[in-house]
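Action item from last week, closing it out:
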Amino acid sequence: MPSATLTFSAPLNVSCQVGDTVYYVDTNTVGGFSASTNVGGSAENTIVEIGEIREIQNPTSSAPVIIAETTLGYNELNGLSKFIFFSKNNKVNLNSPLGYYATAKFINDNHYRTAELYAVTTDVFESSK
């Protein structure tokens, strides 16, 4: 399968890894900033999948390189006005916290006075990988 070589001018995000999917979207200059102006689903600013990352060279250097499998042609990838981003492979990077649990026991240490419990809350979140 053909590959695309993407060279950057800054270190990659630390969570970018082989197996992730890389995408691009065309950008335009708006108010002095590069921005996607995808208003109304215009064809020129839609998200395009480049392909799966097969190799990452020098990810923490000032010129890292990503090599991705792609079916896109040279003309589709050529250009300086593209925003490149990636998504994680959910089959590999998504898991559940099997076996983790918590218990709570509420005790009134003052046996001579009654106590009222107004609320108990918990918070669960997926940790970074």
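Closing note: Strands lie at 3-7, 21-26, 28-30, 33-35, 48-57, 65-69, 82-87.
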